[in-house]
Design goal:
Blueprint: H1 2-17, E1 35-42, E2 46-51, E3 56-69, E4 72-73, E5 84-90, E6 93-100, E7 113-123, E8 126-131, E9 136-140, E10 146-149, E11 152-153, E12 164-169, E13 179-182, E14 189-201, E15 206-216, E16 219-239, E17 242-243, E18 256-264, E19 267-275, E20 279-291, E21 296-299, E22 304-306, E23 312-315, E24 318-319, E25 329-338, E26 341-349, E27 362-372, E28 376-386, E29 389-400, E30 406-409, E31 414-416, H2 418-423, H3 433-438, E32 444-450, E33 453-460, E34 470-482, E35 486-498, E36 503-506, E37 511-514, E38 519-522, E39 525-526, E40 537-543, E41 546-552
Parallel strand pairs: 3-6, 10-13, 16-19, 23-26, 30-33, 38-41
Antiparallel strand pairs: 1-2, 1-5, 2-3, 3-4, 5-6, 7-8, 7-12, 8-9, 10-11, 12-13, 14-15, 14-18, 15-16, 16-17, 18-19, 20-21, 20-25, 21-22, 23-24, 25-26, 27-28, 27-32, 28-29, 30-31, 32-33, 34-35, 34-40, 35-36, 35-37, 38-39, 40-41
């Protein structure tokens, strides 16, 4: 008996000395398991974190630990006690730590205030947000309002309905927003899944589905026979418009479920879920009218579809409030019902435009360069992209440029300076002897503007046939450097604008387009085409395969 006791004591003692054992107020975590919570203490060697459930853990940093704050590269010294963090680790060693700063926008003076919520509606300088309490409040922007996204200053036009925001005010009783913090791309819907519910693990907030499919190019495509999904802490689960407590989800085993997923550190996390009640029917049509009192919209084919608080509304790649849906929206509807009585489980709005909201004043021009001087040009016989169609004008239009304008020569395939732009022969007096002797003609150009200020201009000797061009929107599926065609993107969930039908026409297969010589614009700035990445929502002007202008939304 004594020998057995000594053996057990030695085994316990050896275990306590092993690297995997932790004493005191810390605990051991198996390799690869994520850890989330608040920093209690941090040094160059280690970090102590209080997890959301109250447990405290101390982990060590190594030379290979990757640090980020608000998705930007950082060092351990940038982290502070109280900051929320997400940690990946192997044993007791941190491999990745990301923090979420509440101080990005600076100090809020005494008497100031902060409001956090989801943008419900944007009407020029008026923004309505829905707070965590469910209450709605209205605030206003001014010319001095600053907007930040991922730590960068961005135009107010970057804001979408459905974005998560934090408003900062200089005075407690003010309704004028001084600064706006906009959540990054994690707010976007990464995928919409359908599958058969099998297992609900309430303890870990996970569900398992069989026969999983993903909505791509207007149809359900197979993904995996079995998949496990993590639910967000505030996931909304509905059936037939009624909310389902997570405790009761197990009773819906064998039912079909629709899941809206966002990206959470490279993994899918479910933010809204609808259990199918009867039978599915998919409809692609225009919403002609909306009856808010009865909770229904009328389609162009005169069918009526009901909707409710459980309906998943997706617009501009984001989950939005039902009041963000407008008449004249083109949508793919996944309806649930029988016969003529159908309720929308999913409404996926196709509509895209140059401007995200009425805040934006961006335009696309195309036309002949009639005159160029030091800081302005005159367009003649020009076109403007209006409601996804080129509209012609037989008058002159003055536009202005500066040293921040991006200039590109499509013939030479290179960027040029402002001085080169106004001093070379891109615009000439065609009746002059100089022009006749040298055979010079006015060039043509595409211009992306903010009001009358040119953000970017690309010029070429001959005007393209605008009739051949199509407006295409969708989501980048892949980017490749094709030896035959150069940098080529594949766009899924693509739709072309139809002038004849006056609506977006979804395509049943991806669209490929070359972007080597395209003007690529994001947040009202030109970016390198190499910066385009899978998951980007795009709005493009293309001539068949060749993209002329690509807006990253």
């Amino acid at each position: 008996m004594m020998k057995r006791f000594i053996s057990l004591f030695l085994a316990a003692f050896i275990f306590m000395l092993s690297p995997g054992f932790s004493r005191g107020d810390t605990e051991y975590h198996p390799a690869g398991s994520p850890l989330e919570g608040y920093i209690k203490d941090i040094s160059a060697q280690k970090v102590t974190v209080e997890q959301y459930d109250g447990r405290v853990s101390t982990l060590a940093f190594t030379s290979g630990t990757l640090f980020k704050i608000d998705n930007l590269p950082a060092s351990w010294g940038d982290f502070r006690a109280g900051m929320e963090v997400y940690i990946l680790h192997l044993g007791q060693n941190v491999t990745y730590m990301e923090g979420y700063s509440t101080e990005t926008l600076g100090y809020i003076p005494p008497g100031g205030k902060v409001r956090s919520g989801v943008v419900k509606k944007i009407d020029r300088n008026q923004i309505i947000i829905r707070l965590a309490t469910g209450r709605e409040e209205t605030y206003f922007t001014s010319p001095a309002t600053i907007a930040l996204k991922n730590g960068r200053n961005v135009p107010l036009s970057t804001l979408y309905e459905g974005d998560s925001v934090r408003f900062f005010f200089d005075e407690a009783d003010s309704t004028i927003i001084s600064r706006i913090s906009i959540q990054g791309d994690s707010i976007k819907v990464k995928a919409l899944y359908r599958g058969t519910l099998q297992v609900t693990d309430k303890s870990y907030g996970r569900i398992t589905l069989n026969d999983v499919k993903v909505l791509t190019d207007g149809t359900w495509k197979d993904v995996e026979s079995v998949m496990q999904f993590q639910l967000s802490d505030d996931v909304g689960i509905f059936t037939a418009g009624s909310k389902i407590p997570l405790n009761n989800l197990k009773y819906f085993r064998g039912k079909t479920a629709y899941l809206a997923a966002r990206d959470f550190f490279g993994k899918d996390r479910i933010y809204k879920m609808v259990i199918k009640n009867q039978s599915e029917i998919m409809i692609s049509d225009k919403i002609e009218d909306i009856n808010w009192y009865f909770g229904a919209f009328e389609l162009s084919n005169k069918n009526n579809i009901s909707f409710n608080d459980g309906t998943i509304f997706i617009k501009n790649g984001r989950i939005v409030d039902k009041y963000s849906i407008n008449p004249d929206s083109d949508a793919l509807i996944v309806a649930d019902g029988r016969g003529s009585q159908n309720t929308a489980d999913v409404v996926y709005v196709y509509n895209e435009a140059i401007n995200n909201s009425s805040i934006g004043q961006n335009f696309l021009f195309a036309g002949r360069l009639d005159e160029i001087v030091e800081n302005q040009l005159t367009l003649t016989d020009f076109f403007i992209l209006n409601r996804n169609e080129w509209e012609s004008f037989d008058e002159d239009k003055k536009l202005y440029f500066d040293d921040d304008t991006y200039f590109y020569d499509l013939e030479e395939k290179k960027e040029i300076s402002r001085k080169e732009f106004y001093s070379k022969d891109y615009a000439v007096d065609e009746k002059s002897d100089y022009a006749k002797d040298k055979g010079l003609k006015d060039w043509y150009g595409y211009m992306y503007t903010d009001g009358d200020r040119i953000v970017a201009v690309a010029v070429k000797k001959r005007m393209d046939s605008l009739l051949r061009q199509r407006i295409t929107a969708g989501t980048v599926e892949s980017v490749e450097d094709d030896p035959m065609t150069g940098i080529t993107i594949t766009v899924k969930d693509a739709r072309d604008w139809s002038s004849r039908k006056n609506q977006w026409m979804p395509k049943n297969q991806p669209v490929r387009m070359g972007i080597d010589t395209a003007l690529v614009i994001k947040d009202s700035k030109v970016i390198p085409y190499q910066s385009v990445k899978p998951g980007d929502i795009v709005y493009s002007v293309r001539d068949d395969f060749y993209c002329k202008i690509l807006l990253i939304k």
